[in-house]
Amino acid sequence: MVDWRKFWRWLGVALRLRDPPNLPTYGWSYFDHLVAVYLTLNTADPRADAVIKKSRERPDDLTWGDIFLLEDTNFFLMPPNLVDRSAWILRERFREIAGSTVYDKYLNSNFPKDTDTPAKASLLKADLTRVLDVLHWYYSLIPVRERIRTSLTVRCIIHVVAYTVLLGLFLTWCNWHSYNFLAMLSCVLFFGIIGGFVSSQRRMQSLPNDGDPIISVFGLDSAGYYLFLSPLLGAIFAVILTLMFIAGILKGSIFPDFYFSPASAVKGLSASSVEVVKGLPFFHLTWYTLPKSSEEYGKLFVWAFLAGFAERLVPDSLDRLASKLDLQTSSSKNSEGTSGATAGSQDTEQSSELKPKVAAATLQDALHTGEVPPKQNEGN
Fold it and tell me: What range defines the domain where residue 94 resides?
């Protein structure tokens, strides 16, 4: 039998004529279980009665806060023996949803365990009430976090599909006009953008699920700019990496090799109209520099994707290049200083060689300075 009330509610939500219900289907299953527990306790409470009445009269307005109020009321009405037996299951639920880090801190907080006196039983009940509060805090925010994550993923997929369609149309146009360099450059940009999209998705998926859930919600809510920043940086880094390949800064078997054909640059021009220039014209570079083979194309596109996926790849390569330039500059300065010092010592030696040497007679007189002449000794 068709429940027309539910049908019209669903149709109104689908046509956006009314707001969707606050609780999902599994939330209502959880609520029905708590209502059954309340009836089992067989103790009336005005707070629980108000929540049950609200679920009957205004079901779309029921929230996770109402569910927490009903479960907290049930926990308050439980006898001590049921509170004691509910401790392990509440703590197990808390461990599964909060993660090992938060749960280990909870274990180190010296939580109450015994219920042999009314005071200890009251402390245990207060502790479990707080655990229940944290559980519902997670219950209310985890759906919000996953809904934001799903929305960002859908937006990312839409952007990827749109860029792929634009690339296909542009490659078709380039094929009609034989614009090979533009086709290559558009593919480099495309794979850099796709690498940036994948990197942004991995970053959103790696947001921590443990700890305070509202922190992860804040992180996801402000992560929308990654859908634009990461692809933009990926495209820029892919172009820079391609220029490094063309310039020969990065060489090796795993890097693409490019080829420039001067004959193709002047194709279609007569010999009299070919102007002899010193150097390569800029537009010849941008139109006739292409990878040598299909394998080189594959390497180029893989590296373009990596430039967008690993955002530190190109900046780290540029940093290493800058450090090599600094080392070369410092070594050249040191070599210049050493050569200058050597030249100075050589000049000193040469200048010393040009000075007149001391005569042998003067040197002999200096060795006998202060001695008494032999004739004077004989007279005495």
Answer: 22-145
